[in-house]
Write a structure and sequence with these properties.
By secondary structure, the protein is of the alpha/beta class. It has one domain: Carbamate kinase (3-Layer(aba) Sandwich), CATH 3.40.1160.10. It contains seven helices and eleven strands. The strands form two sheets. Strands 4-3-5-2-1-6-10-11-9 form a nine-stranded mixed sheet, with helices on both faces. A two-stranded antiparallel sheet has the order 7-8. Helix 1 links the parallel strand 1 and strand 2. Helix 1 crosses helix 2 and helix 4 packs parallel to helix 6. The chain is globular and about 50 Å long.
């Protein structure tokens, strides 16, 4: 396949909302299938891939606070939602002929493997995609933070954040057509300008471990493989702008 991948091993962060497609709730089978096709193609390029999935398409823990529920309980419910999404993505990937394992930070022996760092690394070395579910396994931490944590633990060369737009903007370009698009930013740019790409703890963890973050549109078919070849539109967040 044409094009040499930029990175040897990457982590792809997929939000729960991305899995909804055009729906208002739940999982779009066609969207999950399209994402699975792209992930499988990146594997064929020679890049090892692991994935962290969110759960906002099913349940968002922070919203439960408004119901009078305590935040920890809401967050645990959100973690369970990520397991549902991870199993759906696993099924879609395997239908593409891509061997996949789901590892959950909350042990669920009947459904998937527990998260074990060295086992996950071994799966990736054998050409399997590993989908990490249940966030960090702790309340009060987002799946963005889980993505930065797992990318660090797996020794990933980059963290890919799939969003609804093709990079980082000064404001939401859907609400503000005049928003400025950035090609490159430093970690400190994101933190000081409060650009809302990922939460501050995730950005700080990536910065500490010198893991570049590439932000692209997960809704464009073929975008993930294109980014891996250095093509297409995406924003790079790294240590400096040089």
């Amino acid at each position: 396949m044409a094009g040499t991948p930029l990175y040897r091993r990457v982590l792809l962060k997929v939000s729960g909302e991305a899995l909804m497609g055009e729906q208002q709730f739940g999982i779009s089978a066609e969207t999950v299938r399209r994402i699975a096709i792209d992930v499988a193609e990146v594997q064929r390029l020679g890049t090892e891939v692991c994935v962290v999935v969110g759960g906002g398409n099913i349940f968002r823990g922070s919203s439960a606070v408004g119901w009078g529920m305590d935040r920890a309980t809401g967050d645990y419910m959100g973690m369970l939602a990520t397991v549902i999404n991870a199993l759906a993505l696993q099924s879609a990937l395997e239908s593409q002929g891509q061997p996949t394992r789901v590892q959950s930070a909350i042990p669920m022996a009947s459904l998937c493997e527990p998260y074990i760092r060295r086992r996950a690394q071994r799966h990736m070395e054998k050409g399997r995609v590993v989908v990490f579910a249940a966030g960090t396994g702790n309340p009060f931490f987002t799946t963005d933070t889980a993505a930065a944590l797992r990318a660090s633990e797996m020794g990933c060369d980059a963290l890919l954040k799939g969003t609804h737009v093709d990079g980082v903007y000064s404001a939401d370009p859907i609400k503000n057509p005049g928003a400025e698009r950035h090609e490159r930013l430093t970690y400190m740019d994101v933190l000081s300008r409060d650009l809302q790409v990922m939460d501050a703890s995730a950005i700080s963890l990536a910065r500490e471990n010198k893991i570049p973050i590439l932000v692209f549109s997960i809704h464009n078919a073929g975008a993930f493989p294109a980014v891996m070849r250095g093509e297409g539109r995406f924003t790079v967040i790294c240590q400096d702008n040089g």
